[in-house]
């Protein structure tokens, strides 16, 4: 390769890797898989090795990715938190062993290795003084990290006081367990929040929150895997050191295998690979470390990686099998997901008999048919994927798959929104999505039942105390109190809140019903126009389509929703329970904010965002989600972010909560 061509390729690879590293480390929003990133990095390493004159200090081959997030205090690591060199084959691993073994013979050192799982999370340094946890910091760029002590104090598995008064700095990996991650994403979807790309990014995003209350709500855990600094270290063995850390009260990496030679290392790696789907946490490889701490010092480090450790990344493994059938499952959000039923096949150490096919587009893109020979791949983590069809093995007997037009659980229509990949059941009483329906119904934007959040609703369903939305209004004091120890006060408060919700204005009820594409704004318009839920039920398509903020697609959704027997049944039950079904407040004649556009940012002390928006709209104003030159006011609360900065740049009037209160008096 010509030098100029090599230079050009190196520069292009660096730009790509910098971009993907920023998405991964700083924004916790990866755009490519770890394997794809590793392959790009390997290509860059190979080019830099061939053309060393183009190596620069700022290349990602020479430094750790990641920067300090704005809002956090910088922490300078006394001992750098380095990354590891990756290998993808036992041949590369052997090269590492031969290099280390050669130096061990020269130094007359006894060579042993410790093989551990490479936890897929966020690396962290924890500092203890006389046994008391004093500070925790992210890895950052390896030399400078972020002080996240307050957030780490919310993680139960991080000991606040050690069992012995040691002054020590340890390194660990904060992560979210596999089942906990599935549950977290399910909760995110039910609450209408963005899903996390993977468990690693969920953990990283949770630790790097400026509000520790958010961190406390996430199911974070930690495994300690190294001692960074310990002035009174009585051990020369990393393995023994880890055992002692466990005695001190640390949650130490549970998979650690002592090996005498390369063959034992390979066996340990194979064993971890075969059993990784049984682990309760995600891994992205296995780590091989020299056990002797004095020999580690002799081996030393490069600017980026230690010479005494290496990370083995499991290569993707693919196998052929038969796609026997495609069945559909209904999730808690109403999404209907096609599942592949496979002829059982062993891939990367585990037997695969079924896997998700995601959605209708995925099946069309892969051109999948029932009876096809397909290729299944497992890459790094435990989720198998159908990657392609072996079309040359088709016999002509294969059967086309079609997404259902009705829900396989409740029989209500199954529809696919324009611009969405998922097909969803629209039945308001569908048992599969009852949790989501109720959580939305009781939300701030809906009936605003204070105290009836996601976890409480989940408990009611698990105990069989509610079977549909209307059952909320027949809950007794005793039933609610049974959820908590000494729960009478909680129960009474919730009963009061449920009773109060019966008096909500009509637009709250319309929003709470969860009609597709009918949010708070459209619900207010519909409530003012039709005055009662009965009038809305009987409204014609033409009348609805001509309504402001509605249009033809939403009009169709409304007609379809109210035509369902499940909807009619739910509304009848709510009516019998005493829920208000008519407009209470006529449009105010006080239009002091007419023609004015507000943007809200930060946390307000006296109002929720919804309450402040309602007040603005009640007085004829509009609320926008983004700041522009057309914005009249930015109402800024505590911890206001980028919207405040943009308002300052554009010269938009910024008002405090106190000023807002004066404006509405």
Question: Which features characterize this protein?
Answer:
665 residues, alpha+beta, Helix Hairpins, D-amino Acid Aminotransferase, Chain A, domain 1, OB fold (Dihydrolipoamide Acetyltransferase, E2P), 5 domains, 5-stranded mixed sheet, 37% helix, 20% strand, globular
Describe it for me?
The protein is of the alpha+beta class and 665 residues long. It has 5 domains: 52 residues, Helix Hairpins; 239 residues, D-amino Acid Aminotransferase, Chain A, domain 1 (2-Layer Sandwich), CATH 3.30.470.30; 77 residues, Nucleic acid-binding proteins (OB fold (Dihydrolipoamide Acetyltransferase, E2P), Beta Barrel); 152 residues, DNA polymerase, domain 1 (Orthogonal Bundle); 68 residues, BRCT domain (Rossmann fold). Helices cover 37% and strands 20% of the residues. Strands 12, 13, 14, 15, 16, 17 and 18 form a 7-stranded antiparallel sheet that branches. Strands 2-11-10-3-9 form a 5-stranded mixed sheet. The model has no long low-confidence stretch (mean pLDDT 89).
Topology diagram in text:
Elements: H1 3-26, H2 34-50, E1 74-76, E2 86-87, H3 90-107, E3 113-119, E4 122-129, E5 132-138, E6 144-146, H4 149-152, E7 168-176, H5 178-190, H6 199-207, H7 212-217, E8 220-229, H8 238-248, E9 256-259, H9 262-275, E10 283-290, H10 293-299, E11 309-312, E12 317-330, E13 335-347, E14 350-356, H11 360-366, E15 373-378, E16 384-389, E17 414-416, E18 423-425, H12 434-442, H13 454-462, H14 477-481, H15 488-501, H16 506-512, H17 520-530, H18 533-537, H19 541-545, H20 551-563, H21 565-577, E19 597-601, H22 609-618, E20 622-624, E21 633-636, H23 642-650, E22 653-655, H24 657-664
Parallel strand pairs: 2-11, 19-20, 19-21, 21-22
Antiparallel strand pairs: 1-6, 3-9, 3-10, 4-5, 4-7, 7-8, 10-11, 12-13, 12-15, 13-14, 13-18, 15-16, 17-18
């Amino acid at each position: 390769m010509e030098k100029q061509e090599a230079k050009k390729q190196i520069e292009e690879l660096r730009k790509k890797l910098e971009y993907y590293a920023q998405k991964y480390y700083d924004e916790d929003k990866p755009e490519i898989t770890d394997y794809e990133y590793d392959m790009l990095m390997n290509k860059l390493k190979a080019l830099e090795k061939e053309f060393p004159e183009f190596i620069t200090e700022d290349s990602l081959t020479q430094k750790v990715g990641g920067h300090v997030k704005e809002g956090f205090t910088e922490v300078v690591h006394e001992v750098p938190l380095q990354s590891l060199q990756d290998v993808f084959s036992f041949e590369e691993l052997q090269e590492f062993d031969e290099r280390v073994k050669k130096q061990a013979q020269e130094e007359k050192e006894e060579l042993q290795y410790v093989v551990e799982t490479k936890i897929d999370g966020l690396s962290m340094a924890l500092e203890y003084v006389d046994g008391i946890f004093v500070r925790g910091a992210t890895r950052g760029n390896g030399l400078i990290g972020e002080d996240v002590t307050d957030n780490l104090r919310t993680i139960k598995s991080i000991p606040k006081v050690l069992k012995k008064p040691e002054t020590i700095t340890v390194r660990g990996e904060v992560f979210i367990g596999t089942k906990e991650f599935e549950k977290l994403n399910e909760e995110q979807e039910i609450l209408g929040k963005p899903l996390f790309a993977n468990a690693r990014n969920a953990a990283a995003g949770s630790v790097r929150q400026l509000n520790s209350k958010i961190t406390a709500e996430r199911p974070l855990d930690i495994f300690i895997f190294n001692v960074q600094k310990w002035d009174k270290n009585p051990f020369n063995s990393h393995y023994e050191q880890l055992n002692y850390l466990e005695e001190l009260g640390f949650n130490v990496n549970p998979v650690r295998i002592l090996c005498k030679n390369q063959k034992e290392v390979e066996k340990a790696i194979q064993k971890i690979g075969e059993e990784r789907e049984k682990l309760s946490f995600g891994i992205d490889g296995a780590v091989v470390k020299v056990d002797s701490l004095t020999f580690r010092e002799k081996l030393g480090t490069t600017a980026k990686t230690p010479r005494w450790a290496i990370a083995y990344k499991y290569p993707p493994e693919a196998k052929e099998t038969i796609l026997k059938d495609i069945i559909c499952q209904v999730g808690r959000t109403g999404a209907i997901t096609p599942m592949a039923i496979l002829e059982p096949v062993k891939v990367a150490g585990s037997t695969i008999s079924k896997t998700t096919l995601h959605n209708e587009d995925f099946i069309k893109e892969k051109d999948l048919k029932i009876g096809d020979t397909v290729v299944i791949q497992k890459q790094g983590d435990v989720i198998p994927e159908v990657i392609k069809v072996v079309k040359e093995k088709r016999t002509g007997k294969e059967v086309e798959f079609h997404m259902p037009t009705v829900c396989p659980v409740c029989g209500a229509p199954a529809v696919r929104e324009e611009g969405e990949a998922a097909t969803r059941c629209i039945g308001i009483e569908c048992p599969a999505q009852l949790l989501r329906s109720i959580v939305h119904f009781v939300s701030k934007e809906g009936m605003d039942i204070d105290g009836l959040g996601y976890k409480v609703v989940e408990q009611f369903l698990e105990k069989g105390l509610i079977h549909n939305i209307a059952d909320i209004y027949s809950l007794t004091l005793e039933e609610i109190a049974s959820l908590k120890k000494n729960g009478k006060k909680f129960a009474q408060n919730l009963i009061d809140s449920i009773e109060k919700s019966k008096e909500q204005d009509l637009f709250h009820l319309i929003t709470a019903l969860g009609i597709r594409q009918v949010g708070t704004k459209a619900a207010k318009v519909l409530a003012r126009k039709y005055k009662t839920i009965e009038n809305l039920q009987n409204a014609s398509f033409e009348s609805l389509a001509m309504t402001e903020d509605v249009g033809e697609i939403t009009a169709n959704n409304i007609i379809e929703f109210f035509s369902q027997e499940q909807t009619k049944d739910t509304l009848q039950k709510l009516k019998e329970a005493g829920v208000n079904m008519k407009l209470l407040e006529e449009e105010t004649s006080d239009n002091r904010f007419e023609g004015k556009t507000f943007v809200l940012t930060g946390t307000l002390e006296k109002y929720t965002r919804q309450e402040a928006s309602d007040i603005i709209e009640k007085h004829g104003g509009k609320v926008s989600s983004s700041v522009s030159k057309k914005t009249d006011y930015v109402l800024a609360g505590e911890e206001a972010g980028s919207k405040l900065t943009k308002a300052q740049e554009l010269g938009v009037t910024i008002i405090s909560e106190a000023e807002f209160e004066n404006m509405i008096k």
